[in-house]
FixH family protein (Kroppenstedtia sanguinis), 154 residues
Amino acid sequence: MSVKSWMVGGLALMTVLGLTACGTTPEKETSEKQEAHEEEHHGHEEGHGEAAEDLAQVEMKLPEDAHAGKETEIEVKITHDGKPVTDANEVKFELWKKGASKDEHEKIDANKGKDGVYSIQHTFAEAGEYKVMYHVTAKGGHVMEPAETLTVKP
Ligand SMILES: [Cu+2]
């Protein structure tokens, strides 16, 4: 068995296991591993459509008016079968400046609010385009969507 096929097998296995390690980035990731992580995310999205009714539904709300140096609130609302999810296992936000490398991504644990809302307060140091995505583990599944763009004004 070649190293490559071993990696492909490992990747498939990780996908099957539900990407429990998705929120934890090792200190050093090779570019190959980064690609693998991206593929994981893709495989994950495809899974969405099929088993969507079992997964928690997540709606992200980005601030409409974000300014550098000013505290900004980013939140998600999590529901399951139309009811707010107040017992999510893990809710994280991943933020990075557009084009930043994977190890510059910031991962921040969200604070639990009321009625299935989980949020962070974040101050962006500089203006620019940022990417924001969430990682939610709740009701026995992991939910995430491709990153959304947030424009931070000066
Ligand atoms: Cu994730």
About this structure: Confidence is low (pLDDT under 50) at residues 10-21, 24-36, 45-50. Residues 22, 135, 142, 144 surround copper (II) ion (CB under 6 Å). The helical segments are 3-16, 31-50. The radius of gyration is 16 Å.
